[in-house]
Amino acid sequence: MQKSTTQKIIRYTILVSILLLTVILGRLHSYIKLFPAIDAFCPFGGLESLFTVIRYDAFLKRIALSSMILFGAVVLTALLFRRSFCGNICPLGFLQEISARIGMKILGKRFYLPSRLDRIMRFIKFLVLVVVLGGTWLTLSLIFRPMDPWAAFHHIGSEELFSSYFIGFIILIASLIGSFFLDRVFCKYVCPMGAFLAPVSKIGLYSIKNDREKCTSCGKCDSVCSMNVSISDSEVIKSGECISCMECFAVCPEAALSVTPLKSRDRKLKPSLLIFFTLLIFVVVIGITTVTKQFVWKAPTGLPPRTERLLWGPQRLKGDNTFEDVVTIFRINPAFIMQEWEISEEDFTLPLSELQKDPDSVQEFIEELYEEAGLDPRKIYAGGACGGH
Ligand code: SF4
Ligand code: SF4
Question: Which of 291, 322, 356 is the last residue of a domain?
Fold first, then answer.
């Protein structure tokens, strides 16, 4: 009991932390464009961009090397611990799990589709994978993006939700409502990442074994499995649907389940360690590539530091800033600036201090313009446009 509590604490701490981290990153991007869009932190983007990287040595728009790095970490995890990414890292899977838990609490039971229908529906995700990858590679654009529930989740509260991500939002709501009754509906039937990982996980080094001598076939493990994997009547869990969540371990009264390397029965890995090592793979991969500056936490702007500093808003103009910075960051019409500040075109590249213009006054001028235009002053730092530029 003590062991299963520790295992759950580790798992939920990881899942909650990752969900919070992604929400923070998504929110930061909506206010400060120096933070990359959430796509840059999506491992599926790495898979979508694989073709263009191999063929053209370039990423798809919005995808960065960090997506590819995360994709590599997901594959590495799958080769060791099967779909442990789905069970212990993916925040979209976790959102569905939360909905399912609430459903269980309220309804007192989990629902299942008839097994024949369930088997047929599980193929949908493979179809989605083929269509998404085929379409993306043919059009060289992220065709799944408007339908992506995860992208929609990060645009809740933004104007783009109903214009650009409406289908994704509908899928998100349907997944959460569906999971309330059926648990992880999107994972089981639709997710292209899950479809990719299912066959890869089959060659995973570690798998779950059920000791037939200990197992009493009580079915408790089956009843908690969010992916409806049949555990009680198997000796080895070979299903590509198992997400290594280790929930079945926590309820087994006979301690009949174990995680072992495929070819060994003696060397066992504690379920809590499998969860911890999954996180460790991501921490190490992201840590190393952050140090080597390959993992991008900041979108490249190509701007000089004095200009880029303004994007980390709210930062005020300083004497070393120029009117060119004002045009670049605040998108104010240069003609309007020339007229208001009585400067020539050549003066745009000179520091405000050299032009003897007070940076605070220029700042107030910009903020007044934004207010007059009825624009959210916070959007100043997110690249809002003003003055007809
Ligand atoms: S199947 Fe998809 S949504 Fe579900 S946990 Fe895996 S990657 Fe996340
Ligand atoms: S078989 Fe066990 S580890 Fe795999 S998904 Fe089901 S409950 Fe989780």
Answer: 291
